[in-house]
Every structure is written in structure tokens, then in C-alpha cells.
């Protein structure tokens, strides 16, 4: 069994890790430890993590350990003994029990977060250093086979890319960028094909029902993305890359700031000729992805801070039709189709601290505007949507009890959301959409209580009420616990929660003349789930293993491809019965030697619909292993990433009978990525990588081919203004 093999591998790898007092540890004056992990999401409150005043030692990676002396002045500004563990899961753990964590030690630039040991929710973190070490260019690739996560792409670069968490649907995953919801109201999900990894500081994946904190959309889990704020000397960074499929990649970023203010401007563009998605034919499907991002913030007076963010991400490219081909079943086939997806995201936030930080007020406003156009030979699908949100969060730190052994806080939240949807499609002979803008509004109220007892037990509970103008009002909740047992080298953790997913705007209001009709009587999907696990410290500060079991169920599941015999059209409908999901997640990370780190992950998931039929595109077995080695005093780095996806199922359609469908097995596959970089001199770095090293021929969705082996290489240039050091900015 793959599960047994993974467990055996975790234990044997841990056995290889020397004890902290061993000869290997004595052979170097540099600490060889796992860095602490800080979690920003998973709570209404945003606990402060105070940054050190001298941030000049914080490197460009966002995961550096505490500053150390360099033996070579041209070495990169990062420790050769940091986590070096690749872009897999930093599962739920800090470097030691009960130790306080500051911004520098945690290796983060954001001013908020909580030690992972205080979080009962199952969560994984991918840092900027890991993204850079493995040279990840698309954020979705960083999430592949993390614990509980499956990524599926339906075509070439720029095609629909879904992230499923613990066997849930793609539109059950809520995505946040700098605290702003970015799911498209049209179909309720976020297409990860439009999200570049450039400029990302950290990605957090929170698993399990999260509606008690985040409301609708967070039924399966949350992907929380934090972009770089870049405090420090005035810095300019530029990269250029060229590789397979005539891929051209350029990016640039200018940033700087100190504790009183910061600003960052970044641009990224990636263009590729792509590859042929269809099983037959020879037409490549290209893509052009661009991202523009501005972030700025300032301390107006002590205790009052403002932050601003504006982001645009646009994806333009080609896609194939799906249906007719010489075979028995429908697959992708070459067609002169194009798409243009454009998203604007803007937000502003004000934080106001009172009474020495005992009371904190946060006011946020955000707006997203999404325009999606898919142009075929005879028709054009165009749907425009917006989402505007205003919210207030207040956090009160209550007085400590029992001499500081009992610490607790309460948080209140109120928010308003307005979503709009405008169908502007032209279906040629069948007609055109009505172009009428529909909207729906909701007001949410939530309260959270958090407690820390004897620096060992961490408890949280949150209740949320959503008052909606289109659907019945609903209440969701979530609770979690984490218990530190350092004498036993373990940390039990658990969570329980409920969630609701509203029908999408298209399911409720959209239409395709002659093909699909909306259903205004749809009911929200509802879920309830729990998990429990134990984090083991195999070697103090050196090797950690987490084992978590989870269960969840889903009622009123929406089938968006149901046939209505009365109208003869397809529609959406709620299904009777209960869908079930259960499974096990394993993760481990360890530092084997100075500069050498390993991260491992494995997931087993069993997802079935109410009839007991396996859910499609949910592989029961997934795993990944990441190895990173830093050498020459941090000037060079080499990484190896292996992702395994087991056999799973997809739905296929008969050519002769469009209503005839059945399940088909998709073969297992292994994806291997190798990458290396070296700093020739300060500010000049060369890098290269090979993706799909084994040249695997596989499909993530039936009828859509994927990319073969591909190589890329590039250069990175970095400048720092010598007269604008951190101390000069004060």
C-alpha cells in the first residue's frame, strides 16, 4: 500500500536526522533548526507579531531564520541552514513549544499572525523562499498534493485550473488575496490559471469548513494569499526567463520602506505558445498572462495605520472546443477559440489601536471587477461580475487571569457584501443574453472568543450569522483546540465546523438559449465537518510529523448539469441525500544537515456522492516530496520536487448520445521538477529548471492533454540604493 510506504519513509527519514547534540551539530556554529511558522488566517482577529526594528537582515525570501554572520560577502542574504524544505507543507508547527515568535524569527514581513502551535485548524504554509527555490511560476503548482489538496487543469496554460480541498468542489474553496475575496460571483470559484506566483510572500491553506469565519464559499477550505509588502532599503528586482513552448517571462519590482511606511510596485508578464491540448490535431493553445500590483501603507500617527492595494491580473489565450472527434467519446478538439479574462482587485484598510493595543479597530473596503469573454467560432460567452464589501472588526484583549496563566480575547465583526452579475453573451442562431444586471446583498455578524491557558491549551470558537436578501438567513460556527505536550513531544489538535455554499449567480440567473435555464429555487449547499490529529516532534527543532484524520458531509449538493424533461433544457438542481468525505493527511518536515531539508506529504481521501458513487477528479491517493540543498554559504541552491497523483475517475460523454455518460479511470502519474540557482555576484543570479522530468503522458481531465518535459532558464538582477539604508529611512 502507498500509505504504508509513505509512513515507513517518514519514519526512516526521521531516523537519519542527527540529534541536536550530535557530532554534526557540533561541526558548525550555525543552528540547524526548522524555522517557526506563523499563521495569519483562521481567525477573525489578527494577533500582532511585532517586527524587530532592524529589518535589513531580512532577505528577499520571506523565510529567513535569524540573521547570522556570513563568511562570504557575496553570499545571498539567507542562512544556509534554514528550512530548505521545498514548497510542500509547513504543517502546523513552530520550532519549539511555547516559545515566543517575533517577525524576524518567523521570517515574515506582515505585521499580523499567530504561532502555528496556537492554531487548532489544519493548515499548510508555502513561503516565498520555497516558491523561489523551486522556481514556481504558477501559484497552483505550489499547491499540488499538499495535504488534502488536489489541483486539476483542463487544457493548456491559461485553461481552467481548480483547487479542491478534502474532496470538495472547486467552488467550495475560498481564495483571499491580501484579505480580499477574489472568487468570481458568476461561477463561485477562483480560476488559479490567472494567478502568477510572482510577488507572493506566503500561501496558507486552511482545510475544513470555514464559513464560521469567512462566510459562504469557504465550505471545503480557504487559500489565503499574502503578497509582499517589502519593507527595507529601496530595492529594484528584475527577472527574465526563456524556455519550452517559446515561453517568455519577465518581471520587475520596486519597493522600500520602514516601520513608518512602505510602498511596492510590481509587474509580471508571461507569454507562451503553449501546446496542443486536443488528443488529435496539431494546433497549439497559447496564453499571455500579466499582473500589475501596487501596495502601500503608512503609520499616520502612533496606533493608526492605513494600507492600500490595487491589483490587476489578465489572462488572454486560446482554447479548444469539446465534443466531436473520430472516437466514441467526446474530447477536446482543435478550434479557433480565444478567451480574455480580466480582473481588478482594490482594497483599503485602516487599523486603529487604543489602550496600548488592548482594543483594535479595523475598517476595510474592497471591490473586485471581473470581465470574462470566451469567443468561439459561432458564439461568444461573456459574463461580467462585481463584488463590493465593507466590514469592521474589533478585537478586545481581556484582562489576564490567574497571574497571566489565562489569557483571552473577544472579537466582533460586521460586514456588508453586494454582488452583481451581468450576462452579455451572444449565442448566434440561439439568441443573446438579456444583458440585465442582477444583484444580491448580504449582511454578516460574527463573534469569536479565543483563550490561552497556561501557555499550553489554545481554544477558539466563532459564530456567524448571514442575513441574505435572496436566500434564507443562515448561521454557521467553528471551534478548534490545540494542546502542547512538550514532555511527550506531541501536540494534539482538533476542529469542528459548519459551512454553507450559496448557489452561483449563473445557476440562479444565467442562461444559454436553447441549452441551459436558471433555477431561482435552488437552496444553498450545507456541510458539517471535523478533524483531529497529533503533531509529533521526532527530533526537537529538527523533525516533525503530523497525522490528521478528517470527515465531512454535504447536503443539498447542486448538480449544475441536470436535465429538465419539461423544458428539454439543462439546468441546476439540488440533489437529495448526503455526500460523504473522509480521509487521512500526513506531513513531515525535517532538517537533515546544514543546508539540507526535506518535506513530505501524503493524503488519502474517500469522496462519494449520495448514491455511493465515487466523486470525479478526486484521486484517493496523492503525495509529494521536496528536497532542497543550499550550498556555498547560501549563494547556490538546488531543489527536487516529486508529486504523485494516483488513479482517479472522470466523467465521459457518448458521441451518439449526449445524455449517455459514465465514469472512466485516469491513470496515475509522477511529476518531477528539478531546479538550481547560483549567485555569481551580489545582485546577479542565474537559474534554471526542468519540469515533468520523466516526460509523463497524463490527463487531469478526460480528453485534455498536458505538457511534456520542459526546460527553462533565466537571470535575476537586484539593486539596492546604498544611500537609503534602513537606518537612513527612519
List the helices and strands and how they pair.
Blueprint: H1 2-16, H2 23-26, E1 38-39, H3 103-106, E2 114-115, E3 123-127, H4 128-133, H5 139-143, E4 149-153, E5 161-165, E6 173-177, E7 180-181, E8 200-207, H6 211-214, E9 221-227, E10 232-243, E11 247-258, E12 261-275, E13 285-301, E14 304-323, E15 331-354, E16 359-375, E17 380-397, E18 406-423, E19 438-453, E20 457-468, E21 474-483, E22 490-501, H7 505-509, E23 525-539, E24 543-555, E25 558-564, E26 569-574, E27 578-593, E28 596-608, E29 621-631, E30 636-645, E31 648-653, E32 661-666, E33 669-681, E34 684-691, E35 710-720, H8 726-729
Parallel strand pairs: 6-9
Antiparallel strand pairs: 1-2, 3-8, 4-5, 6-7, 8-9, 10-11, 10-35, 11-12, 12-13, 13-14, 14-15, 15-16, 16-17, 17-18, 18-19, 19-20, 20-21, 21-22, 22-23, 23-24, 24-27, 25-26, 27-28, 28-29, 29-30, 30-33, 31-32, 33-34, 34-35
What does this structure look like?
With 730 residues, this protein is mostly beta strands. The chain has a single domain (2-386, 482-498, 527-729), classed as Maltoporin, Chain A. Strand 6 and strand 7 form a beta hairpin. It is globular and about 75 Å long. Residues 5-31, 49-111 and 723-730 have low confidence and may be disordered.
Mean pLDDT across residues: 85
What is the count of distinct domains? 1
Q: Categorize the overall geometry.
A: globular
* SS class: mainly beta
Largest sheet: 22 strands, antiparallel, barrel
